[in-house]
Amino acid sequence: MSDLNTQSVWTRRTVAFLATTMCVACILWNIEAHTRLGFAILRQQYMALQLGLALSIAFLSYGLRGRPVTRPHFINIVFALICLVTLIYAAIHFVWLLQEQFYRPWQITLVGSVVVVGVMEGVRRRAGWMLFSIVGLFLIYALFADRVPGRLIGRELSPVRLVDYVGFDSSAVFSSPLAVGTVTVLLFVFFGQLLFAAGGGAFFTDLAMAATGRARGGSAKIAVVGSALFGSISGSAVSNVATTGVITVPMMQRGGYSKEDAGAIEAVASTGGQLTPPIMGAAAFLMAEFLDIPYTSVAAAALIPAALYYLGVFTQVDLIAARDGIAAPEDANLTVRKVLAEGWHFLIPFAVLLYGLFGLRLDPEDSALLASIAIVAAGAIRGYKGTRLTFATFGQVFVSTGTSMVDLILVVAAAGFVIGVLNVTGLGFALTLMLVDSVGSSLFLLLLISAVVCIILGMGMPTSGVYVLLASLVAPSLVEAGVTPIAAHLFILYFGMMSMITPPVALAAFAAAAISGAGSFATGAAAMRIGWAAFILPFAFVATPALLFEGTAQEIFLSTALTAFGIGGVTIAIVGFWAGRLNHLWRLGFGGFGVLALPLGFFAVPLWVHFAAVLVLLACAVVRLARGEAAPTNQAT
Asked: From its phi and psi, is residue 69 left (phi > 0), alpha (psi between -120 and 50) or beta?
């Protein structure tokens, strides 16, 4: 974390020690060192230690307003010490506390109180007021659930009972979200940090530039490919924008894209990385845990929608470049052969990762550990453009991994509070019934309402927090209405991620706007236009499960082809260009028949209508191409 460079020596060393301990503990846990040494340790004990480390780092590194501090205030040091000591105590004595939980000893109340106060304050500082307010609202509801009128009435809970449950129970804070974050996601963040430290970031940027830089609008295509790769690994759309955007956004602006479009393209590409296999940030692992299915099943289901998402983005940036006369960037002088000749060794860790996940069918954390070992070996032997993995940079990776995990751990811990409240009060069941009953038998209306709820709840929240919260609140109602579980969870993930590019709180778009110098809301509006396909794809794969690899090969192919043609037609209409600028009639034609081509089964459109729409789209495209040869491309028709 770059903020470490501005901290005092004592603070920097303390935070570095805590962060390194976090990473080492994760590695030791995943290689089952405790079992090999003859110790029986519960997963909750491990999670308690990691939560204590994360809270300590948060209070030492950030002040009351959530900003990095050079010297932590005395109160912050006390908070950090209390959290660390209390959770280490909980980790050591967890078995005894679990055995005595029925009798509610004061020690559990103490641990629960520290966890609730510490996590809520940490979330307020790091994740912002939105998540803090949502979680706080659930905690307040739990205290007065027995007095709420109507269907939302819940079980009576005293403040002590509430604190004991949400701050200690294995069905609340120490539940699956925190487990996935501290066991699996931490190792993938470690994998990504190792990759960047060894020069992999520059390699993949150069590879994207070499592969797409010579095409029209190559600067934007470089941004799309590079940001998609980084976004999948980093697990944060906003941090990905901040990392790659400083390179890609100015490049797009120099190439001829407007400030708004340059920032929007970066935001949309970075957000899409969270939806793209094989890694999908942290969401895929959380989803696999929620659904109790193999991670590979999640990655496979997400593959076609992700490809269609980027098809829409690529088509739009290409057509914008053709419409506005944007050529290849001036520095697109790399070749794929040259880049691979110097950095081919970075493909080895990915090959190991994919082989471990899909070939050996190992757990994701085991595959990430093997891939990390491959990076260390390859990065120590070979460098890239003068960057090599040294002992010093290897040590820094432990620190940067631990500090970058703090926000995620706090968010999933807070999400555990929400899960705990839903369980202990019965609110989860009541919300599901109320949402399903409010729309009657209309699945489309339920999906529409759920999409709006997902975008609103997701505003201002990081990726993992968005997904965990929505998986607890919205997904059960979709499943109850007949949507397959994998489709329901991918639906909420897509619309939760769309909050990143949807004003008024579009974090990824606003971060890109800060780089491009454009207006925040203008960039957000442009991002919604460029990423429009992501707003329709969830409806498509709910209505057509073949898009999630559920069906025969013929059904999968037809559904994918129809959706691709539909996205292409609507994108042409949005940009207003195909072999020349389009007038309103042509745009209406492309857009209308593009919508008809989409396999949205809610409206009982016969299959022949979809095929007819595709034929009309092809005919329109051919006619436009023929007419475009006889007229300048910048001339309106």
From this structure: beta
pLDDT value, residue 631: 44
b/e burial code for range 430-443 (CB count within 10 A of at least 16 → b): bbbeebbeebeeeb
Q: Domain spans of the chain?
A: 2-127, 559-637
Contact 537, 308 (CB under 8 A): yes
Alpha carbons 78 and 264: distance in angstroms, whole number: 43
Contact assessment for residue 136 and residue 124, using Cβ atoms and an 8 Å cutoff: no
Q: What is the CA radius of gyration of the chain?
A: 25
Read off φ and ψ for residue 581, nearest 5 degrees.
-70, 145
DSSP per residue, 535-579: HHHHHHHHH-GGGGT-S-HHHHHHHHHHHHHHHHHHHHHHHTBSS
Q: What does the pLDDT read at residue 1? A: 44
Give the chain's count of helices (H) and strands (E): 32, 0
Exposed, middle or buried, 312 (CB in 10 Å: 0-12/13-18/19+)?
buried
CA-based torsion, 157, 163, 165, 166: positive or negative: positive
| 557-572 tens-digit pLDDT | 999 999 999 999 999 9
Q: Which residues are CB-neighbours of 251 under 8 A, at least 6 positions away?
A: 219, 222, 223, 329, 331
Q: Which of 231, 181, 240, 188 is nearest to 372 (CA)?
A: 188
d(CA 404, CA 193): 10
| pLDDT tens figures, 326-376 | 776 555 567 788 888 888 888 898 889 888 877 888 888 888 899 899 999
How many Cα neighbours within 13 Å face the side chain of 634? Answer: 4
pLDDT digits (tens, 9 = 90+) for 590-621: 999 999 999 887 777 788 888 999 999 999 88
Contacts (Cβ under 8 Å, ≥6 apart) of 18: 53, 56, 57, 60, 84, 402
Q: What is the pTM of this model?
A: 0.80
Structure tokens at 19: 């962060």
- β strands within 581-627, DSSP E: none
